[in-house]
Design a protein that fits this description.
The complex is a heterodimer. Chain A is an alpha/beta fold. Chain A has 16 helices and 11 strands. Chain B has a 3-stranded antiparallel β-sheet. In chain B, strands 6-9-10 form a 3-stranded antiparallel β-sheet, with helices on one face. A 3-stranded antiparallel β-sheet of chain B has the order 12-11-13, with no helix packed on it. Classes of the chains: A alpha/beta, B alpha+beta.
Chain lengths: 412, 466
């Protein structure tokens, strides 16, 4: 049995000739044989979605999706695949939930429709009554061992929750109290799903970030891992999509999107958007899509009371500007970010939604101020230090800004 | 009256509820309702038009590129721009790969287990009770092909990703072409996979379909419906603009006639929308959700052409183009889909040869402030249209009519059943508790409600949410 560390290493690197599932299945098989793990019963619920994540998982390669079902999971309910139909297929799900309470995994694809108490999305019938997705999630989640949201819709609302969000779509973690493992992406990469499932099977909960995403896949930004990164550093920018050079100026959201697409690539490691000349649209981001649109416009220049600056220049100008200016901007940003949830310039008249929970905002502000103070201290130390440190500091600042400024253009 | 309900209908995309009235072992009445509402068209309003191809793909995970292609077509018209020939070819190639993937998955993942016994494990167990007629040996052989098919479909998506970057939700399709380059190395890679798939389609997929058809001959007489066919056309040639699959309509298996888009109207009498008007042209659609509306049973509206119901999909395209005119039934739909897959493979091979390696695939353009356009084509399962208007650089109006709304529409104001509701009439039912036969009819259409559940142009000031 390999160690957890080795497992994560496998998940984070993808050999060209091998796929992740290819490496996972023997490991899982071994664990089953040594009785270190049991095949988990899985209930896969599809709510307000497009089935894209299931289709993406079907693209898992060598061994195939079918082997994944045979050798890794015990998929008791998934209406895309169940041979039965209607009440009989639902009965299997209900029996599983009853018999395997505390043991089964609940995988959710698609966002939870909350309008009209969830009646915009009914998903099955029990004793002749129509059950909404909302009700099903709230009932089943507390009984599950793990709740796993796959795809941006299930994680954060995603495209289904785009303004004006007529069906009241929300991410799973917004409607239940049980902890949720979020595997975002529109769709989620099959490796992100199988890798997380594998970790859960063999070692339990993987390390999660503040958005509950497995760090092994979402620990770095697209920008950090990008093949065109050097062109960004050298100031070679594409003039239109499909052109050579860094795609930042034609809308790439790589700097604010955490995912490992550049090294992993898609569909059996064939290609990925930036390699194909198309800017990253940030589909694995919690702010997708509203916060990242228009897709072909570049990230907003950051406006400070003093001057407008873009991310590239930010590091250099920070020292000149003084940290105070940036601080003001950031504090404003936190409110803007909340307002921004269903807002992009032009799609909604100016009627900012008030923050839904003042306590939450306060906490976020406190957190922000604390981090900012740390940055300021470092900035002061830096004044006399070497360029190497400066570079690292600039990186920290940009990282900091990226996390706080995922919003589209609220800063303008 | 014995009403039986299937909810959820499995092995389709998205939730769907079917009620059938069974008398003397036959279906005498049917109601089909979609049970998810998302409202994509309202979301499009006010956005940057250039985002349409990327955003509308998110409507559907199985036919995502169909939406991207259609949105790009609508924008091309609105902006009066065109991709270079290489770009058009690449768009066709991307779309073709997705179509192959869709057809393979429809047969092997969705329709298959209506006829073939899967292994005794979840999710293949429990299985529907009914007449599985294949001898064990044939059954095993088909199951072996099922496993291969999953790899083949994934290979088709791999082929798509060569030019589409990733899939589902390909990312390279833009208004004036494809951002990926057509280098000789990529062309060869695409060709290699295509060769593999195309051999497999001819040798395995087609023969499996024919095997099935042999054992289930009676399904050439089940699921007949109105015999009205519609297609918006599919795959245009870069230079001539000629369609590889021509658009047209057929009424009651008659002659092919030209499509007149002004005859398209949508009704919502039995849909959960409030509307004082009986029928509306797509250009002036209105949508006010009303989940409590009396008698209504679906989120899908009822598109009609000249007041009549029409069926879309591979069978319709087969009839209109003269590729397949054996009949209209469950089995005909399945066979026509397999034959179409073969034709699409052949077309893709031709386009590959017409590509200029390293020639331009995209050209820059300056977005104008205003414009109107319509993108009309066929998706995998029937006619798809995007209608847009752009004012001051933003989308003012966005409207989508999708294939599944044609096939799976509910009744209209005259009480006329939708195409699939009609096709269910007369379906023999051996065991009212199993309804395997009803499932077979429905799945032959390749239903996909992710795209069906939509919202017609909802101006902000008119939209009333309850």
């Amino acid at each position: 049995m390999i160690t957890r560390r080795e497992f994560i290493k496998i998940c984070m690197s993808t050999a060209v000739s091998l796929s992740l599932t290819d490496q996972l299945i023997p490991l899982v098989g071994q664990a089953y044989a040594e009785k270190k793990a049991l095949k988990p019963p899985v209930i896969w619920l599809e709510l307000g979605s497009c089935t894209g994540n299931s289709v993406s998982l079907e693209n898992a390669f060598n061994p195939s999706f079918e082997q994944l079902l045979t050798d890794m999971l015990d998929l008791r309910y998934h209406w895309l695949l169940a041979a039965e139909q209607g009440d009989a297929s639902v009965q299997v799900m209900l029996d599983t939930i009853e018999q395997e309470q505390g043991n089964f995994w609940l995988v959710v694809e698609g966002s939870v429709m909350t309008a009209e108490n969830g009646r915009y999305n009914e998903i099955f019938r029990r004793n002749g009554q129509l059950i909404t997705g909302l009700a099903a999630i709230q009932e089943f989640a507390p009984k599950a061992k793990y709740v796993i949201a796959v795809g941006d819709c299930a994680c954060f609302g995603g495209p289904s929750a785009a303004h004006p969000n007529p069906a009241g779509a929300k991410g799973v973690w917004d409607v239940i109290k049980t902890p949720v493992i979020n595997i975002p992406g529109c769709p989620a990469h099959p490796d992100w799903m199988t890798g997380t499932f594998g970790h859960l099977l063999l070692y339990g909960l993987p390390e999660l970030d503040s958005y509950h995403r497995p760090v092994m896949f979402f620990g770095k930004t697209i920008h950090d891992l990008c093949q065109r990164r050097q062109q960004f550093e050298d100031g070679i920018f594409a003039k239109y999509p499909g052109d050579q050079g860094c795609l930042y100026k034609v809308g790439c959201k790589g700097p604010v999107t955490h995912a490992d697409c550049p090294i992993r690539q898609w569909n059996h490691y064939i290609n990925w958007p930036v390699k194909a000349g198309s800017p990253c649209i940030g589909c694995a981001s919690p702010q997708f899509p509203d916060g990242l649109m228009p897709f072909y416009n570049h990230l907003p220049d950051i406006q400070t009371p003093a001057v407008a600056m873009n991310i590239k220049k930010l590091g250099e100008s920070l020292a000149i500007l003084g940290t105070g200016a940036v601080a003001t901007h950031l504090a404003a940003g936190i409110f803007a970010r909340r307002i921004q949830k269903n807002y992009i310039k032009g799609t909604k008249p100016h009627e900012p939604t008030p923050p839904e929970n003042l306590e939450q905002v306060k906490q976020e502000l406190d957190d922000l101020i604390r981090r900012q103070n740390a940055l300021m201290t470092e900035a002061k130390k830096l004044e006399s230090s070497k360029p190497v440190h400066k570079k690292r500091f600039i990186k920290r600042v940009t990282d900091f800004l990226h996390t706080e400024d995922k919003s589209g253009d609220d800063s303008q | 009256m014995t009403i039986k309900t299937i909810f959820p209908m499995t092995r389709i995309h998205e939730p769907m509820k079917v009620d059938v009235d069974i008398q003397n072992g036959k279906v005498v009445n049917a109601w089909i309702g979609a049970t998810l509402f998302r409202g994509f068209e309202a979301m499009m309003k006010g956005r940057d038009p250039r985002d349409a191809a990327l955003f509308t793909q998110r409507i559907c995970g199985i036919c995502s590129t169909a939406h991207a292609v259609t949105a790009a077509m609508a924008l091309q018209q609105a902006y009066r721009v065109e991709p270079p020939p290489n770009g058009k070819h690449l768009i066709n190639l991307i779309f073709a790969a997705d179509m192959i993937q869709n057809h393979l998955r429809h047969f092997y993942l969705l329709a298959f287990f209506d006829y073939v016994k899967g292994p005794d494990m979840a999710p293949y167990m429990p299985r529907l009770k009914g007449d599985y007629r294949l001898p064990q040996k044939v059954n095993e052989q088909l199951m072996a092909h099922y496993k291969e098919s999953i790899l083949m479909a994934a290979r088709a998506h791999e082929m798509l990703a060569i030019f589409g970057a990733k899939v589902p939700m390909a990312q390279t399709i833009m208004i004036t072409g494809v951002t990926e380059r057509a280098s000789s190395e990529k062309i060869v890679a695409y060709a290699a996979i295509l060769k593999e798939i195309s051999n497999w389609v001819t040798n395995v997929y087609l023969s499996d379909v024919m095997t099935l058809a042999d054992y289930y001959k009676d399904y050439y007489h089940i699921g007949i419906g109105y015999g009205n066919m519609i297609s918006f056309g599919l795959f245009t040639q870069p230079i001539t603009g000629a369609y590889e699959f021509t658009p047209g309509i057929i009424v009651n298996r008659g002659l092919v006639s030209k499509l007149d888009l002004s005859k398209v109207g949508e009704e919502s009498r039995y849909s959960w929308y409030r509307d004082e008007q009986q029928s509306r042209s797509p250009m002036e659609g209105q949508t006010i959700p009303d989940r409590d509306k009396e008698d209504a049973y679906s989120w899908v509206k009822a598109p009609r052409y000249g007041g009549q119901c029409f069926e879309g999909g591979p069978l319709a395209r087969g009839w209109i183009n003269g590729d397949y005119r054996r009949g209209v039934s469950v089995m005909d739909r399945i066979v026509a889909r397999a034959l179409e897959t073969q034709k699409v493979c052949r077309l893709a091979e031709e386009w590959l040869q017409q590509l200029t390696p390293d020639g331009p695939t995209i050209q820059p353009f300056t977005p104008p402030q205003d414009g109107d356009g319509a993108g009309l084509t066929d998706a995998m399962r029937g006619p798809l249209g995007h209608w847009i208007s752009i004012r001051q650089g933003k989308l003012q109006h966005y409207q989508i009519v999708t294939p599944t709304t044609w096939n799976f529409s509910p009744r209209d104001a005259h009480g006329i059943r939708g195409p699939v509701e009609e096709a269910l009439i007369g379906t023999p039912v051996a065991n009212p508790d199993s309804l395997i036969e009803v499932g077979r009819v429905i799945r032959s259409y390749d239903p996909c409600f992710t795209c069906a559940v939509h919202l017609l142009d909802a101006p902000e000031d008119k939209l009333v949410l309850i």
